[in-house]
Amino acid sequence: MTTYKQGSSPNFGRSGRGVKSNNDKSKAYLNEMRKRQEAHARFVRGFVFLFFVVVISIVAVFYFGLKTDFCARHFGEDSPITKMFANMSASNASKSEADFSLPFGLRRKNILLLGVDVSDNPDDLWTGTRTDTIILVNVDSRTKSINAVSIPRDSKVYLPDGNGIQKINAAHSIGGVEMTIKTIENTLGVKIDRYIMVHDNAVREIVKALGGVDVYVEKNMHYNDYAGNLHINLSKGNQHLSPSEAVGYLRFRHDPMGDIGRTQRQQWFLRGVLSELKKPETVTKIPDIVGVARKYIKTNMSMYELTQFAMLMKHVDMDKIEIATLPGAPNKKGYISYWILDPDKTQEVLNRLIYRKKVVSDSDSPVTASLVYTDNKVTEAQNIRAKLKDAGVIISCESHVGKTHSQFIAHKSRISSDFYNDLKKSIDEIDGYQFVYEPAIFMCGDTDFTLVVAGK
Q1: Is 197 found in the same domain as 83?
Q2: What pLDDT does residue 238 have?
Q3: Is residue 17 scored above 50 in pLDDT?
Q4: Measured distance CA(290)–CA(288) in Å, rounded
Q5: Which of 58, 99, 217, 294 meets the CB 3.0–4.6 Å disulfide criterion with 310?
Q6: Does any domain span residue 223?
Q7: Range 199-225 average pLDDT
Q8: Domain CATH for 227
Q9: Do 312 and 185 fall within a single domain?
Q10: Residue 401: domain span
Q11: What's the rounded mean pLDDT across residues 76-99?
Q12: Partners of 298 in the beta sheet?
């Protein structure tokens, strides 16, 4: 029989000092959960941003640049652009010219995605910058799948070469990408095969190269920040966004959804950009797009490897990407705030998403779930509840949540993406939910997984 616990703070005290003490604990728990949710939202935002820029550059090269007949018609058979892409196409036929065999080889690869802030030196975009976004991506060509682990930028670590205790985002400003890679490898015990760095200015310049992007603006957006030189004046409806309007659309967050709303808008914006890239006339914009990539993206991946990456990405199901943020807790020392990684939980995340260790559960206990939903999704949540019961899942916790995006959050190691894929065969409502692994924080109760039912 399915049982329910209403609310997100069960077993709080009922009277006297116990109430005050437990209420304090409740507030601390909710504050901690809010911080973790905000950290996760920043991770998703950063992942979408980096993935957006990389995909734009790679897809532009792969879908159009390697079609040398298009280049020959638009630029001439003897033009430098045509010759460049003809050489790339020829190199793709020779696997001996790259470390990755098609596509990427049999061994899984770890690619480090880094988003850096703006440099004070206009002549040097990279030196002295800090990494605002750090994401370790594990690519498995055999299963055509991608896992992504966010490393909080405030993580407290030991920097190599006698640089002492610092936040991990300081590694790049002190010793460049080499120190960043060495720090992550030493801290997490992983091997990083390749890296891709993206500069803050990349999105604006790529939209400029494309000549704008078509996006449906879901509501009126009006905001002025004179100190930050940010002016947003967008009306609801279909819009062809200019570079400055695109930046405003992506940065707008003055609504109840906050960072979550920004994340969703970035995902919609990405779809608009990919639609632009698939238009045949985009081939004439290849030189500008490649120019932006050369200026604002820095990588040790060869062009051959990037095109193989693009070929692999064509077959990756975005709904099957597993993501996680390294677990830990905030800690303040003086005026400096750190993120203290939880060693056991961090290793658990790495084992699952990077090393992809399969856990075989010996437990015969039934699977438990938390079901949380927004006010406009009550009917859908009721349908999901009934189907979970039919599937033998016990709902041990249920509550309402604020607006967010739909997610399937696995809390225990026995809940894999395979489990999720099997479950959605009988519960079509959860098809397309973002899969997240979060072993430390529970939104409603200590269960095997949580379903967040939200959206329009």
Answers
A1: yes
A2: 86
A3: no
A4: 5
A5: 58
A6: yes
A7: 84
A8: 3.40.630.190
A9: yes
A10: 358-453
A11: 51
A12: 197
Q: For residue 85, how far is the Cα from the chain centroid?
A: 30
Token pair for residue 142? 């055999």
Is the confidence at residue 5, as pLDDT, over 50? no
Q: With the CA atoms of 162, 166, 167 and 168 taken in that order, what torsion angle do they form, in degrees rounded to the nearest 10?
A: 10
> What CA–CA distance (Å, rounded) separates 384 from 378?
10
Q: 7-14 — which CB contacts under 8 Å span 24+ positions?
A: 7/399, 8/372, 8/397, 8/399, 8/443, 8/444, 8/445, 10/397, 10/445
Buried b (16+ CB within 10 A) or exposed e, 107-137: ebbbbbbbbbbebeeeeebeeebbbbbbbbb
For residue 233, how many other CB atoms are within 10 A of its CB?
11
Q: What is the pairing mode between strands 145-150 and 131-140? A: antiparallel
- 385 and 263 part of one domain: no
**Structure pTM?**
0.68
Residue 194's DSSP bridge partners are 111
Arithmetic mean of pLDDT, 155-159 = 93
Provide the token pair at 386. 């009934």
Report which of 297, 296, 199, 204 is spatially closest to residue 247, judged by C-alpha positions.
204
Nearest to 309 by CA among 196, 435, 191, 149: 196
Cis link prior to 439 (omega < 30° from 0)? no
Q: HSE (CB half, 13 Å, CA atoms) of 202? A: 27
Torsions phi, psi for 145 (to 5 deg): -135, 160
**SS3 at position 430:** helix
Q: Is 275 left (phi over 0), alpha (psi -120 to 50) or beta?
A: alpha
The C-alpha atoms of residue 192 and residue 181 are separated, in whole angstroms, by 7
- Shared domain for 417 and 284, answered yes or no, is no
Are 112 and 91 in contact by the 8 Å Cβ rule? The answer is: no
Strands 131-140 and 213-217: unpaired
What mean pLDDT do residues 311-328 have? 74
Locus of tokens 């020392």: 333
CA distance 261 to 252: 8
Count of domains forming the chain: 2
One-letter amino acid at 29 equals Y
Model pLDDT, residue 110: 94
Phi–psi pair at 103, nearest 5 degrees: -95, 110
Q: Record the tokens describing residue 169, joined without a space.
A: 């985002």
Q: Which of 175, 143, 138, 137 is nearest to 157 (CA)?
A: 175
User: Which amino acid type is present at position 62?
Assistant: F
C-alpha of 361 from chain center: 29
Indicate if the pLDDT at residue 193 is higher than 90: yes
